Amino acid sequence: MQYAPGGTGGMSPLQTYHSFSKGWCGELSDEAPQLDEPFRVLYESAAAACMAAFGGMPDKWTQAEIDFSQVNISDAAFECFDRDTYALLQSLISFHRQFPGYRIIRGDAAPSQTSCPLITEISPNHGPQEGGQQVQIRGANLPSTLVIDFAGTAVKAVSSNGAEATLTTPSSDVTGAMLVSVRGYGYTSSISYTYDPASQTPEPTGSP
What is the 3-state secondary structure (H, E, C) of the chain? Predict the structure, then answer.
């Protein structure tokens, strides 16, 4: 993977997922029809639900439910972010069914849980520029065969239980903070690791 193919309109499910996760209903409505199946029906349902829930168009709920009923989320083509879309969509539709006259307000709460691989911590978070330091990564949904994108370098890690993994840092041509993420999933989370500059040891001076 990790990115599913785009449709005939050049749109990718990942771009469309991003619009849905941000609540950009207008963009989502434009993007969803450009996708190939099975993605199109999922994101057309999401677009209709978005307009109904947040766009002041309650008549769109009917279309959202019709499209949702046609989604087979077990389809192998779907990625983790598509399944996240399905889960959020299911929650919106369920809420509407239970409280059909209520208005849904989008808040600024913390990000919802994801089924995608997620890095939340790296320890230690800094080390020598020449690499070779063992670090521990903590997160969620980490696959057993785990490749970390470490400042653009692919590093294989060992995942213990889906929540922790260890790896040895690669060397770096430059110092400073670098982004670390699960390869292919940089859109879900990135965390910083800092390469420290080499210690400057003053050269001894001769006797006067």
Answer: CCCCCCCCCCCCHHHHHHHHHHCCHHHHHHHHHHCCCCHHHHHHHHHHHHHHHHCCCHHHHHHHHHHHHCCCCCCCCCCHHHHHHHHHHHHHHHHHHHCCCCCCCCCCCCCCCCCCCEEEEEECCEEECCCCCEEEEEEECCCCEEEEEECCEEEEEEECCCCEEEEECCCCCCCEEEEEEECCCCCCCCEEEEEECCCCCCCCCCCC
Handedness of CA 144, 181, 111, 31 (dihedral sign): negative
Indicate if the alpha-carbon torsion angle 175, 179, 182, 184 is positive or negative: negative
Q: Is the dihedral of CA 177, 178, 182, 187 positive or negative?
A: positive
Summarised one tens digit per residue, pLDDT across range 155-175 is 998 866 789 999 999 999 999
The answer to whether 184 touches 1, Cβ cutoff 8 Å, is: yes
pTM over 0.90: no
b/e burial code for range 24-42 (CB count within 10 A of at least 16 → b): bbebbbebbebbeebbbbb
Pairing, β 145-150 against β 134-140: unpaired
Among the listed residues 131, 154, 158, 130, the one whose alpha carbon sits nearest the alpha carbon of residue 146: 158
CA atoms of 7 and 98, how far apart (whole Å): 35
Structure tokens, 107: 């808040």
